[in-house]
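Hi,

I'm pasting everything inline rather than attaching a file, because the server keeps stripping attachments. The sequence lines come first, and each chain or strand is labelled.
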Amino acid sequence: MPDDREASFEREFQAIKESLEELCRETKAVSVLLIDKAGQLITSAGNVSSLDIPSFATLSAADFAATSNLADLIGEHDFSTLFHQGVQKSIYVSLIADKVILAVIFTRETTLGLVRIKVKKTAEKLSGLFEKIFEVLESEYSGAVDDDFISEAETELDSLFE
Amino acid sequence: MALINYSSKEINCKIVYYGPGLGGKTTNIKYIYSKVNPENRGKLMSLDTELDRTLFFDFLPVDLGTVKGFSVHFHLYTVPGQVYYNASRKLILKGVDGLIFVADSQIERFEDNIDSMENLNDNLIEYNKKFEEIPLAIQYNKRDLPNIVSLNELEDALNPRGVFFCEGVACEGVGVFEPLKEVSKRVLRKLR
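And the predicted assembly:
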């Protein structure tokens, strides 16, 4: 990837990360995760050390996909937010720029109302950034991996799946 | 498409096991779970019905390790095979990078295999994905059973693309890693 494009990508990515950290701080959330619709984590903020991230990301995406289809069945385009209330912890999930899932895990230290307002603010900020980042991702997608990478990865695959 | 995260230097690829109900998709993934070094895999997650049939999906993350500075992850999913679970099957195909079709070799399941392959094609069309462009391998499972269709017949019916195939006895691990390796390599080559 050319250096200037990489620098631009890094800049947008850093801005996203900072927005998530700000959201996490302002809502006193345990953690904030950004997940793509296929169930892969993009980035996170806050404390995720005790969280099984791959499972969380996968289930959040599946959850969203399932409820989108439910929405469709009753003639809605999408449910743009989901809320799962627990005794100690709750999860607030929101769709951003129609492409990315933002999940906030929070405790009783904060309120749903505050999370909702702050997520809305963050979502607006992130939407613009995402448009730029997806442009970079799509245009630089090919060529990111060279022949050396492939041959090294294939050797690793052979030993992993023996 | 596989997600390359340049900032955290990660590559994530999604591989989906597809095929008719009770064909052995979950058995494949459970065998992989049991054999891959625990350091290289996460938790096996199954969303089952009470009758032990896959309701939504099974999920197993596998880490390839770090290659040229990028950490490479494969996310393996199975879809529920039963015909009436098509809605959730379709959801799992979202963002798929590679496919392993697990066919049931038993004579009485011959038609079910064909239906499932057609269903896969239909579901991909809905995502505007071209079937031919997605790396695919076929495992003809349950080759140890007595009442099975010949390999030639299965090939004629299910593999007009001439993709990689192998015979499998998934519960014993026969033919489990070959298609996974093949598809994983082709998914990575597509990143070029």
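The longest helix of chain B spans residues 110-126.

If the labels don't parse on your end, tell me and I'll reformat.
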